[in-house]
Amino acid sequence: MVSHSQGKGANSAQIEHFSYNNVLVRNFAIATTFWGVAGMLVGLLIATQMFWPEANFETSWLTFGRLRPLHTNAVIFAFVGNGMFAGIYYAVPRLVKARMFSDLLGKIHFWGWQAIILSALITLPLGITSSKEYAELEWPIDIAIALVWVVFGINMIMTLIKRRERHLYVAIWFFLATFVTVAVLHIVNNLELPISLTKSYPLFAGVQDALVQWWYGHNAVAFFLTTPYLGLMYYFVPKASNRPIYSYRLSIIHFWSLIFIYIWAGPHHLLYTSLPDWAQSLGTVFSVMLIAPSWGGMLNGLLTLRGAWDKVRTDPVLKFFVVALTAYGMATLEGPLLSFKNINAHTHYTDWTIAHVHVGGLGWNGLFTFAMLYWLVPKIYNTKLHSIKLANAHFWIATLGILFYAIPLYWAGFTQALMWKDFNEAGMLTYMNFLDTVVQLLPMYKLRAFGGLLYVVGALMMVYNIWKTIAAGKLQPEEETSAPALPKQGEKIQRWHEWIERRPIQMTILSTVLIAIGGLVEFLPTYFVESNVPKIAAVQPYTPLELQGRDIYLREGCYVCHSQMIRPFRFETERYGEYSKSGEFIYDRPFQWGSKRTGPDLHRLGGKYGDSWHFNHMLDPQSISPGSVMPPYPWLIENDLDKSNTAAKIEAMQTLGVPYPEGYADQALADLDAQAQKIAEGLNKENIPVDKDKEIIALIAYLQRLGTDIKNAETVPDK
Amino acid sequence: MYKDVLRSIDGIEIFPVIGIAIFFLFFVAWIIYVTTMKKQDVDTYSAIPLDLDLDDKIKANDESNI
Q: Which residues form the Cytochrome c domain (chain A) (predicted)?
């Protein structure tokens, strides 16, 4: 074996013997399989709750609002995360002809990551959440994630430093970009002020918090679900088809343009919101530009298989790769289309978004991971796959599952958006009752759950197949190999990119600079130019009771089904009231704009109904809105409000710049009690026996406050 | 509102021009770079995952007509 950098004449270079560690690869492969199935089962449960709310079995832990974050976190960080690590721990040593730097760091990485997943599994159903989508875990877990991530980065970069292959293959660039960008995104989006071990408030509020969140949310898709898998694509597709990547030149353009452009596109999640227009436009422009590198990458992968299409007919691994890449292509064309304002006006808050992400999640990440496992597990167990036939069956059932999942949801998205904006001849909304538009979708939700069920059945078939493969083979824990040592002085560098292609640290730094440019351009003006978030005199900080109620709203994950952002459309203002202004959110930590309306928007809910309506509705939604798919929340009426942290919360808010009077923390509890007393008395008068110390009282206080500052103001500002 | 924000920044007109220029140059530079790469280098790099001997790598790439 000759390293290319020495050329043909270097056969005399000292040959070094070493081995690859397959134990870690095996561990991550088992973890991705296990958590993958677990995450999908949670998905199936909440998909069922969408048409059968009783499927929460009347426990708070299993409500949609708490399980949906568990589902997204499990699939993203546990399934795709472990899948990514299995692939990276297999590919990187082989691409650079060196054992991973440290077995110990590898172990810490593996067990640390599993411990984080386990902590998510415990905390999210308990309602311990920072309520920022895909970053819901609370601050101690955030710190653990950062530490374990750095361990992974050190292990990878140190491996690259002691490599025996001069050139860093393109897959490795994607892994490096993944490492640095996820680190930056994770840290910035989780800047928060802890008030206890299980509760914190973000440093940013309202519009700024939204911008940071969707800069993160979008780029978590980019740099956690996309770039590492593209790196794996550049390794495993050539490997499985036994032919080099279609165009290495294209891969260089693909890499730099993708990481440069991706980071700018986040604001397309906030079109028609209170985000400044210039930031929205920036997000749209860069989203459209993203089509080019995304499709370049997809075509590069697919065209690698040209001349091998006969193999695609028989080899399930290649079949999975082809459909995974096709799904990637569809999702990355759809994404830019969804970021056009006129299309987004139609699709946002509907099931279309859910269909879109699942084409990416089930199609690209899911099928790619399955292909990788089918290829990789027999290799490290020194055997053949137990059943090609079963893997082929898995391929078909998974592909059908995706179709049954996505098509009904696209249909549902279209249907609901059209119903939302339908006006009758009298100029009134045809479906003034939001529930009418939900009931219409229930058949589609059932079909979607059926699609999900097919997909899970397919995954279970894979579990069986892999298990039988493992049982038939024997793990090769250390794979012996040898390669010539890399001479200290390489041959002369003739071209400037060769310089960077050989330097992992400098490559990492350049990638960081590139992704930082887009991030900074987006945030800094919003953060520093004060007029970007105009103050509205009528907007006042929350009272202590409302603040406590808001934290219950966060705990129950209300934001996963209800937005708090009325867009400036007639069909929205007719239904909900005055459109939302950026200045209304300056005390919202975290912001609660949401991204999906399974129920109506709540931004102007305050004062719309009486307190007793809210009480009865939370106790039994169906009694107030027959046919509603909202689960009941009886525990809010049973649980006493934890008031012990009230002063700490007020002080934390003061630290973050909320203008409560000095020393207000001491008085907060008395104010809280007084406001609670008033609400409880009102309810008692309506023959609802409830104590003022119950959680429901605080929640009602918050719901009745929502959006009222502006209603009560004499003049309504434009923005 | 965004117009007011942008107006308040001195010399804002030049920003988009600089932006598009950086962007354009960045991609032109890459295109020039990749189109002038040596074929043999490209072949060797793209064969790294295949773990073949050098001669095989070149052969595999010649067959694929990149």
A: 544-707
A358 vs B27: which has the higher pLDDT: A358
- Split at pLDDT 50, 70, 90, the class of A492 is low
d(CA A309, CA B51): 22
Q: What chain A residue is nearest to B47 in terms of C-alpha separation? A: A244
CB contact under 8 A, B34 and A495: no
**Do A92 and A100 touch, CB atoms closer than 8 A?**
yes
Interface mutation vs chain B, best among A249, A499, A527, most B CBs within 10 Å: A249
Give residue ranges of B with CB < 8 Å to any A CB: 1-2, 4-6, 8-9, 26-27, 30-31, 33-35, 37, 41-51, 53-55, 57, 60-61, 64, 66
Measure the N-to-C terminal CA separation of chain A; round to a whole number of Å.
66
Q: What is the ipTM of this complex?
A: 0.73
A52-79 pLDDT per residue, tens: 999 998 899 999 999 999 999 999 999 9
Element (H, E) at A17: strand A15-21
- Which chain A residues touch B44 with a CB distance below 8 Å? 4, 167
Same domain, B27 and B41: no
Q: Å from B53 to nearest chain A CA?
A: 6
Name which of B26, B34, B33 is nearest A517 in CA terms.
B26
Domain span at B42: 37-66
Pair (B65, B55) in one structural domain = yes
Pick the closest to residue A119 from A149, A147, A139 (CA basis). A139
Same domain membership, residue B41 and residue B31: no
- E strand or H helix at A454, and its extent? helix A442-472
Q: Do A257 and B30 touch (CB under 8 A)?
A: yes
Query: Residue A673, exposed/middle/buried by CB under 10 A (0-12, 13-18, 19+)?
Result: middle
Q: What is the pLDDT of residues A226-274, one digit of tens each?
A: 999 999 999 999 999 999 999 999 999 999 889 888 877 777 877 787 6
Say yes or no to pLDDT of A1 above 50: no
A62: closest CA among A610, A707, A521, A633? A633
Element containing residue A19 per DSSP (H, E) = strand A15-21
Burial bucket for residue A435 (CB in 10 Å: 0-12, 13-18, 19+) = middle
Min distance B32 CA to chain A CA atoms (Å):
10
Residue of B33, B34, B46 to mutate for A, most A C-beta atoms under 10 A: B46
Which tokens is A394 given?
Answer: 């898995």
pLDDT of A218: 87
Contacts of A260 in chain B (CB under 8 A): 26
Residue pair A342/A268 in contact (Cβ under 8 Å)? The answer is: no
Largest pairwise CA distance in chain B: 64
Q: In angstroms, rounded to a whole number, what is the distance separating the alpha carbons of residues B29 and B19?
A: 15
Of A171, A238, A252, the CB nearest to B50: A238
Q: How far is CA A598 from the centre of its chain?
A: 18
**Measured distance CA(A200)–CA(A198) in Å, rounded:** 7
Closest residue, chain A, to B3 (C-alpha): A278
Among the partner-chain residues B45, B55, B61, the one whose CB lies closest to the CB of A167 is B45
Inter-chain residue contact A260 with B1, CB threshold 8 Å = no
Residues B50 and B26 in one domain: no
User: What is the rounded CA–CA span in Å between residue A90 and residue A479?
Assistant: 11
CATH number for region A544-705: 1.10.760.10
Number of domains observed in the structure of chain B: 2
Cβ contact A272:A341 at 8 Å: yes
Segment A546-604, tens digit of pLDDT? 999 999 999 999 999 999 999 999 999 999 999 998 889 999 999 999 999 999 999 99
Distance CA A49, CA A446 (A): 10
CATH no., domain A305-475: 1.20.210.10
Nearest CA in chain B to A254: B30
